[in-house]
Amino acid sequence: MRVSTLKDEIITSIQRSILNQDNLGIIRIDKEGNPIYVNNHLLKLLSFQNSEEFFNHYSRNKEFQKNTEPSKYLSYLKNEIRPNFLESRWINKNGKVVFFKEFVSPVINKNGEITYFDCIIEDITNDKLVEELIKDNQLRDLSILKVLPDLLFIISYEGIFLDYKYSARNQVKFISKPGDVIGKRVEQVFPSEVADLILNAVRKTITNGELQTVEFSIERSGKFSYFEARIIHNNTYNQALILLRDITAQKQAQEELKKVTKDLEEANREKDKFFSLIAHDLRTPLIGLAGYAEILANDIDELSKEEIRNYSNNIVEISKQAIKFLSNLLEWSRLQTGRIQYNPSDVSIYLLVQSIFQLLKSNAERKNITLNNFVNPEHIVYADENMIYSVLNNLISNAIKFTNSGGEITVASQLVEDKIVTSVKDNGIGMTEEQITNLFTLNKSFTSLGTAKEKGTGLGIILCKDFISKNFGKLWVESKEGEGTTFYFSLPKYNN
Questions:
Q1: 157 & 228 share domain
Q2: Is residue 47 included in any domain, yes or no?
Q3: Mean per-residue pLDDT of the chain
Q4: Is 379 in the same domain as 469?
Q5: Strand-strand pairing, 344-348 and 239-246
Q6: Is 19 among the domain residues?
Q7: Residue 73 sits in which domain range?
Q8: What contacts 79, CB < 8 A, 6 or more positions away?
Q9: CA 265, 271, 272, 273 torsion: positive or negative?
């Protein structure tokens, strides 16, 4: 697999849950202004059936391309007193005008340069059209305003409800029978704080003729509902018209928007840190590999056979480290992107441990480490054999790495309710509390040297955690510095 493809898969895996929102449009645009990702909700808002149709339309339509010009986003981001969103006007596939609020989040690389613009999009077409209609109309034609999707009241300067317009499609829950409020004062219909806001807005509108907007919330049965009242002056009768709308769903979408924006920013930071970790952990062994190879190439005639053997062994060892790291990285990325199939069956932990002990026997013997398989042969789990093999291989390899010469590693199992709990215990160097805290964190580089100066990365442990989770289990660790470490993982017991 090419490195660029691997990188794309990992980016996708980190951001999948964020980008696949079903109530907010999301588009990622590169620094040249080319869209590289559009989610399904935005496709729907723009009347496209799929992303292929969107990108074909985009490549052929220069007017449509103006919607993603980077100058638009750069100009917005440079404005120090900008609102928290950019309002934009798009033309959808069918030629219809749609209005969007775009919440722009630039993705910055380690050099401080913008590489992408992530835009979270909220459709405000209906609100915008209503706003324009109100501005143009200013109550000269009340019949037009009566078709708007709002509960409509006419109210006097004193705050008395005089008339209303109502239909089934513009219900407001706390006013189930609008006719009942006619003749009442505003404070008899709304809570006192809300009534004061509305009455002040009504009097402002009647005095200066300007449109007023009031947002408020009302609590019912422990839940808050949110409403918007737009208040317009009626020049003819010196009254005001209140267009009342339930905006609870919109408020919920805005809260979701804040969460998505925060998550997206965090995902971009995590991605950058993760690739920095990969670059660091690949660079280190490759530098060593190049150094030893250069010595052999330049000085081989002056080197003794023993020196050549040592340098060659170092090259082999470093190559193995790099291969293991890349293998773990590839497996992890394939798991995150759904390219590893979960194929559970009855799996004998005892036999897997025996197989891995045989594989790692020479590593343990070099350090005079004893390997004990105390797993109960009758303990059979229901899991994906390849994944659990990878987990045990990583945990036992790490145990050998961090155990001193003459030490001991024991793998055992026990039945706990309907789970088989397997433990991999060593009496090696152990870990500090800080190391334990960072162990399962993707953006922390946990690369402690082994007792024989073995190098490695923390990615294998993250892979183990994800594999165990995929098999409906849990992975945890207990460790004390200077005394050793025990990793535990639980898996469902196989039932015949």
A1: yes
A2: yes
A3: 80
A4: yes
A5: unpaired
A6: yes
A7: 3-124
A8: none
A9: positive
**Looking at residue 403, what DSSP letter applies?**
S
Q: Residue 461 above 70 pLDDT?
A: yes
Residues 6+ positions from 75 with CB-CB distance below 8 Å: none
- CB 456, CB 449: distance < 8 Å: no
Q: What is the CATH number of the domain that holds 72?
A: 3.30.450.20
Residue 280 lies in a domain: no
Helices vs. strands in the chain: H and E counts, helices first: 15, 17
Domain count, the chain: 3
Confidence of residue 273 (pLDDT cuts 50, 70, 90): low
- Cα 202 from Cα 209, distance rounded (Å): 10
Q: Which of 246, 264, 285 is the last residue in one of the domains? A: 246
Instruction: Provide the 10 A C-beta neighbour count for residue 198.
Output: 23
Give the Cα separation of 298 and 296 in Å (integer).
6
Q: At what angle do helices 305-336 and 3-19 cross, to 10 degrees?
A: 30
d(CA 295, CA 374): 46
For 60, counting Cβ atoms within 10 Å of its Cβ (0-12 exposed, 13-18 middle, 19+ buried), the class is exposed
Q: What are the pLDDT digits (tens) for 129-146?
A: 666 656 554 544 555 555
The pLDDT of residue 204: 92
Residue 168, both tokens: 């089934």
The answer to whether the beta carbons of residues 120 and 264 sit under 8 Å apart is yes
377-393: average pLDDT: 90
Which residues contact residue 387 at a Cβ distance below 8 angstroms, ignoring those fewer than 6 apart? 340, 342, 467, 470, 471
> For the whole model, what pTM was predicted?
0.46
Both 365 and 459 in one domain: the answer is: yes
Residues with Cβ within 8 Å of 368's Cβ and at least 6 positions away in sequence, in order, are 405, 406
Q: In this structure, are 120 and 145 located in the same domain?
A: no
**The residue to which tokens 């590489």 are assigned:** 115
| pLDDT confidence bin for 279, thresholds 50/70/90 | low
User: Based on the domain organization, do 419 and 370 belong to the same domain?
Assistant: yes
End position of a domain, from candidates 214, 246, 278: 246
